[in-house]
């Protein structure tokens, strides 16, 4: 089980981070790779606040269909409000591992930053494969937290912080295994790309600028469980503040986009 609570507060925080230029650029790349056309039927698994789903619904148009589903009621409510004006869009409560949808019902499927929270990945990918029509396209994107380069004055302490942050999801290293998993589920992997979240300098309105607070909050709430003392977290935070003040902040982490066909 993921440790992360996708509640109202998380929905708001996530929405703000997803509106930063880094994540706007990610959505543009995902749409380029998926290339939705008017009239296509698209599924967004783990729709979250619905920003990508909104773009998808507009691109497939009223002759198409966009179904978004999510396990968290707060996310379903946020995405439903965002998509309310589009008759081709529908948002439902649902689980990636047990899709309440017919076989071969979609031309396209997308799932960004979701499968890293899912424990039974073979089952989730079998479900994704089942609901896509033969020849249908799937775009999956997840972070490998091992790819992080985040400057700190104390790298051992940073490693302990990040080990604790790894606990916010089921698999912080999913992308390295995703190719074989997709093939085992019957997909053909067509393309794999890196999408970097890259802040070589402090910029408050950025993915890193938003995530630094989210990571601190998660570690503050869960650090003890992972053996990280409160004083260490505070020392880590003070160090980051000092690096920001000295214009010495640096953050980079990679997401991996897999384009596959059924
Ligand atoms: C980090 S958010 C990503 C949201 C969205 N895909 C995006 O990229 O903007 C992860 C989302 O996956 C959802 N989620 C996690 N496990 C899920 C599951 N088993 N089935 C469906 N949704 C799930 C969470 O509720 C959350 O909304």
Total of helices: 9
Largest sheet: 7 strands, mixed
What small ligands are held by the chains?
S-adenosylmethionine
The amount of helix comes to 40-55%
Strand line-up in the sheet with most strands: 3-2-1-4-5-7-6
- How many domains would you count in the coordinates? 1
Q: How many DSSP-defined strands?
A: 7
Over the alpha carbons, how many angstroms does the gyration radius reach?
19 Å
Structural class: alpha/beta
Strand content: 15-25%
CATH architecture: 3-Layer(aba) Sandwich
Q: Name the helix and strand elements from N-terminus to C-terminus, one letter apiece.
A: HHEHEHEEHEHHEHHE
CATH class: Alpha Beta
Outline of the structure:
This protein is of the alpha/beta class and 262 residues long. It has 9 helices and 7 strands. S-adenosylmethionine binds next to helix 3.
Structural write-up:
By secondary structure, this protein is α/β, with parallel strands linked by helices. It has one domain (8-261): Rossmann fold (3-Layer(aba) Sandwich), CATH 3.40.50.150. It has helices at 8-18, 21-34, 51-60, 73-83, 121-131, 155-166, 175-184, 207-222, 230-245; strands spanning 41-45, 65-70, 89-93, 106-112, 132-150, 188-199, 251-261. The protein has a seven-stranded mixed β-sheet, with helices on both faces. It is globular and about 55 Å long. The structure holds S-adenosylmethionine. S-adenosylmethionine is lined by residues 6, 18, 46, 48, 51-52, 70-72, 75, 95-97, 112-114, 117-118.
Using brief descriptors, characterize the structure shown.
262 residues; alpha/beta; Rossmann fold; seven-stranded mixed sheet; binds S-adenosylmethionine
